[in-house]
Specification:
The chain is mainly α. It contains 21 helices and no strands. This is Membrane protein.
Length: 472
């Protein structure tokens, strides 16, 4: 597998390094991403008009890719508004406070529930379900919204998605690319997922707890999501009188979780996954929003339904606004580049800029067990930079096959390691636009969430890579 890197590869890599440096320094990267898009467009089209148009077209492309997530977040937030205004949220979550009595119990409780849910339905639908029900309870016992987002993110988009033992989308892709049975890759990934998950979540919790005690913890709340908003209150949407009797609130507090439970059962029976599962939850949330609003606001119900939806969409787009330019740049590392600028931009053997960089790295290092483990972890992390986590895991499987052939052992372990690294980085724990579901549901900045996750995930990857060396 031989890939010749061109100027466009090196320019993309230079901007990645620049962007990551700015993120670490807590600086805004929107302007740099636009400059990167412009530069890539100029190289690809060799025309000023093509590069300028490419900026707008890349924004449109990124918005299309993110629209499903924007919609589900906006709808869940709109529903949460009316539940908070009517007091249903308060009634619904009060029993949970018996189990989530402390910030620590809330962190681990939300994480474990998120892990179990994500194994069956993937993280994005699980975030919508858990955020709507458990987040208010966690906030009431003192867990910061950013801490709740970390728990959802690390357990769901990290542990559950990197193993993917129920749906088996990730191990199927990597196993096929490596020429191995799916079962062998899943078996090899179990100890790696356990080590990675344990190290990362414990480290993240310890760092959060230390900063809370020292008074240095940054809440990361976006301006549109102060604590009152997270609990469902909204001055704009609540301008009409919303009155429900205690018995009605208790009834709806039991019915609404039951409806989401029915969604879960339907997902299992009908084998709904990914976007289909998210759509079911979103449609249910819309119907709940309409019914509760009409019941609570009566004569003003028609207008208030629109008001709540506007409130939800305003929140969603305010959260996603800073992310779209960054996502637009990183999508150019995958299929967006040829789609926006033509198929002749990259060499015929190319599989996208990000994947080409991963192949070049693999070809540049010597082959032995230790170097192979480090290389697969780095290659997996690099291919995850496009924010999907899945686009590069086939490449990780292919490179693992090459390394294992040269070394003479460790094919399944190397394949699983590349899979774990790619999904932890790109699946939603480090790349800001990939972890938007958890950040938006909790009302925190995705950039602040990425910064909180950075050290725990890097420490986890380092420990897991060393651990994998002993398994090869």
């Amino acid at each position: 597998m031989d890939i010749t890197l061109s100027a466009i590869h090196y320019v993309y890599l230079a901007f990645i390094v620049f962007i990551m440096a700015l993120l670490i320094r807590r600086r805004d990267t929107t302007m740099i991403c636009v400059a990167g898009i412009f530069s890539l467009g100029l190289i690809a089209t060799e025309t000023l008009g093509g590069s300028v148009s490419g900026i707008f077209n890349s924004f449109v492309y990124a918005t299309k890719e993110l629209m499903g997530t924007i919609m589900i977040i906006s709808i869940i937030v709109a529903m949460s508004r009316v539940l908070g205004v009517t007091g249903i949220n308060e009634t619904m979550v009060s029993p949970l406070t018996r189990f989530l009595r402390t910030p620590a119990m809330a962190y681990w409780g939300i994480g474990i529930i998120m892990l179990i849910s994500s194994l069956f339905f993937w993280p994005s639908p699980a975030v919508a379900l858990i955020g709507a029900v458990l987040l208010p309870a966690a906030l009431r016992v003192g867990l910061p919204a950013l801490g709740a987002a970390m728990a959802m993110n690390l357990f769901g988009h990290g542990i559950a998605l990197s193993g993917d033992y129920i749906i088996q989308g990730a191990p199927k892709l990597t196993a096929d690319a490596a020429g191995l049975p799916v079962g062998s890759v899943m078996e090899a990934s179990v100890p790696l997922v356990i080590v990675m998950g344990a190290v990362t979540t414990i480290t993240a919790f310890w760092m959060m707890w230390r900063d809370l005690k020292n008074g240095t913890f940054r809440d990361g709340l976006v301006p549109a999501a102060r604590t009152g908003d997270l609990l469902g209150s909204s001055p704009e949407a609540a301008s009409g009188q919303a009155v429900l009797g205690p018995r009605t609130r208790r009834t709806l507090a039991a019915v609404i979780p039951s409806l989401f439970l029915a969604d879960v059962i339907a997902m299992v029976v009908l084998n709904l996954q990914g976007g289909d599962a998210t759509a079911l939850i979103g449609g249910t949330a819309v119907l709940i929003l309409i019914f509760v609003t009409l019941l609570a606001h009566r004569n003003q119900g028609l207008e208030q339904v629109t008001s709540y939806l506007i409130d939800g969409f305003g929140f969603g787009f305010k959260v996603f606004g800073p992310v779209i330019p960054i996502a637009a740049f990183f999508y150019l590392g995958d299929s967006a580049l040829t789609e926006l600028f033509g198929k002749q931009v990259l060499p015929a053997a190319s599989h996208g800029i990000v994947n080409d960089l991963g192949v070049a790295l693999a070809n540049a290092v010597p082959l032995n067990g230790s170097v192979g483990a480090v290389t697969l972890a780095v290659v997996g992390a690099i291919t995850g930079l496009d924010g999907s986590g899945f686009s590069g895991i086939s490449l990780a499987g292919s490179i693992a096959h090459l390394f294992a052939t040269a070394i003479g052992s460790g094919a399944a372990t190397l394949t699983a390691l590349g899979q774990v690294a790619a999904i932890w980085v790109g699946g939603g724990t480090l790349i800001p636009w990939a972890l938007i579901p958890a950040a938006a549901i909790c009302g925190v900045s995705p950039f602040e969430l990425a910064r909180r996750n950075l050290k725990p995930v890097l420490i986890g990857l380092a420990v897991t890579t060393v651990f994998a060396m002993f398994l090869i």
